[in-house]
Structure formats: structure tokens, C-alpha cells
Amino acid sequence: MASEAELTPTSYIQHHLQNLTITVGEGGFWTINADTLIMALLMGLLMVFGFWMATRRATSGVPGKWQAFVEIVLEFVDQQARDAYPGRSKLVTPIAITLFCWILMMNFIKMIPADFFAIPLHALGVNYWKPVPTADVNATLGMSFSVFFLMIFFALRAKGLGGFVHEFFTAPFGPWMFPANILLNIVELVSKPVSLAMRLFGNMYGGEIVFLLIWVLGGVGIAGAIAAGVFGLGWMLFHLLVIPLQAFIFMMLSIVYLSLMEEHH
């Protein structure tokens, strides 16, 4: 990364919004955002380690602080999943817990200033690093398409292949309107994962830009530093609500979509 004196406010923001990419194949056939994959994997491992620590020291008596916190989170997510999904699938609660906790941890990286990653990594020769995985549309689309395949799986399990195909051609207007039925069902199926991905990405990416703008403002004299401190504190407090809310919305909509796929017209 260039020194801060060489960066204009615009180039500074653009720099921090650029991913560390790895090109695979001839002619750049496939580009991988390495920072997104690494940070998402680290947050997933940290989540698993945290749960493992809670279960390793679990007690039937008075729980410790970490065990109590984990139990509160799991009970909350389990109750929300039961309320949104009327079936009896044993997969729903684990899916809900994984989505909520993993997305929550990835979102919370936003609370760490971008330079806390960029400066030490620049010293190691890494020029670009976008730390928040959910601010990358590739990550949010990847999670939403995983939900999409789960939707298809739940529909096939509940209705069978024949029932799913029959409903796809005949609902909602009846068999004689099958061209319109197919079109509407395709739009409905595709719009669900796309809306999931874009909602999470838009909120996280927009929040990242505002944080960078505030950080740039802090470098414009004493008045700018004071204004950046005030605005930064307010935006941070606001994001303490946005970060868990976006994880909750993604989780709840995913469970609702799984439930809808098992309903018969």
C-alpha cells in the first residue's frame, strides 16, 4: 500500500475497497478473492472453536459466563427457527445457528478500522486486503446460493421429484397456463437467493464506505479529527444494531424460504 501522504481521499477509499485477488487459469479465467476466503474461513474456525470451548467446559450446575452466553444465543436462534419453520427437520436449527453466528462474526470485523489490517499486511508485502467478507458480493452470493440448493433439497424431500416438477408447471394458474407458471416460478426461485445476497452485501458495503469516509475526515486538521470522532462514534453505535440485525434477517429469511418450499399449492 502506498503511504498515506501519497493517497488522495478517493484513492484511499478505493484502495481499501479492493480485494486481494488470485488469478487461476489461462487469461484470468477464474479470479479468487483470497482475503474474503481467508477471513471467512478464520471466522468460521473461530466460531467452531468458541462453541467447542463452551461444550468442553459445560456444566449442569451454574454455568460460566461463556457457557451462559452461548446457551442464550443457541436458545434464541433455536426458538426463532422453530417459530418460522413448522416442520420437524433436524437440519433447520443447525442451519440457522451456522448462518446467524457465522454472518454475525464476519459482520463484526467491520468494527475494526481497515488500517489495522492494511498497515501490518503492507509491511509483509500484501498491498490489498478487504477484511469484511460480507462486504464482498461473491461471499454473500455464495451463502445465498447454498440456501438456494437447500431450498431445492427441502422441496424434493417433501414433494418428491414428480410433485416438485408438477407444481412447478401447474402452480399457481393451473396446467393450461404452464408457460406463465414456469416463468413466475423461475423468477420466484431466483429472486430469493439474489435478494438475500444483495441485502446483506448492500448494507455491509455501504457501511464500509461510510466508515472510510469518516476515517478520511479525521485526517483533515483538528476540526476534522473532532468531527470524525463524533460521526465515527455515532456510526459505530448504529452499526452495533445493524450488524446483528443483518445476520438475523439473513437467517430468518433463509428458514422462511425453506419452510415455503415444503408447502403445497
TrEMBL record:
GO terms for molecular function: hydrolase activity; proton-transporting ATP synthase activity, rotational mechanism. It is a multi-pass membrane protein. The keyword Transport applies. Its main location: membrane. The chain crosses the membrane at residues 37-55, 91-109, 137-156, 209-231, 237-260. Keywords: ATP synthesis, Cell membrane, CF(0), Hydrogen ion transport, Hydrolase, Ion transport, Membrane, Transmembrane, Transmembrane helix, Transport. Coiled coil: none annotated. It is found in: Cell membrane; Membrane. InterPro entries: ATP_syn_F0_a_bact/chloroplast, ATP_synth_F0_asu, ATP_synth_F0_asu_AS, F0_ATP_A_sf. PANTHER family: ATP SYNTHASE SUBUNIT A, CHLOROPLASTIC. Key component of the proton channel; it plays a direct role in the translocation of protons across the membrane. Belongs to the ATPase A chain family. This is ATP synthase subunit a. It comes from Arenimonas malthae CC-JY-1.
